[in-house]
Amino acid sequence: MQLTEIKDKINPKLYQSLQQRNLKELRPCQEKSIKSGLFDGKNLLVCTPTGSGKTLVAEFAALDSVYNNIGKAIYIVPLKALANEKYKEFKQRYSDLKIALSVGDNDSDDSYLAGYDIIITTSEKLDSLIRHSIPWLRNVKVVIIDEIHLINDEGRGPTLEILITLLKHLLKNVQIIGLSATIGNPKELAEWLEAKLILDNWRPVKLKKGVYFEGKIEFEQ
Q1: How many folded domains does the chain comprise?
Q2: Which residue segment(s) compose the domain that 147 sits in?
Q3: Which helix (H) or strand (E) holds 82?
Q4: What is the reported pTM?
Q5: What is the CATH number of the domain that holds 159?
Q6: Residue 169 resides in a domain
């Protein structure tokens, strides 16, 4: 799918931003997500390989909501280091928007976040914010959960599961976008999220498997 094919479906600011990044053709998971209701507020669970373009699917949802004055977006990542990395990327890429990073260990309501468009945080921090009954939560329309397969992790999984349950209960019309390169039970998770499942095996670089021995690699045929 060419970018020009969705020009009339997206906000002009978003289209201009994509053009400035020299994006001309959408990748398979991006096309499938759009056809599955990405711009119609549908929940999506995107399970595709690393480098396949999942993050841009999430950006589409967040920016469509912000640029069209529908509501804020929250981007959840599992680690502080990833949150910092994502924050730097978004700040550089979308300088016209107010991007916030909230990963502090302090148990506070971070009331200043009310003035931001996109908030990047961890599941533990967002759980803490919700327990402070943050008033700006009602203005959130898109929630992106990166590495959502960690819901099966013994340590962090319970917090993430409870967090998603709370968000679904508190925000009746929220759009949830789950991202992962590997999930053992994607169909079951998609059903629980009430999301459309996006599966695709396309990757930018072909994956090969081989054995390295004495300076040589023998690849599987």
Answers
A1: 1
A2: 29-202
A3: helix 80-93
A4: 0.89
A5: 3.40.50.300
A6: yes
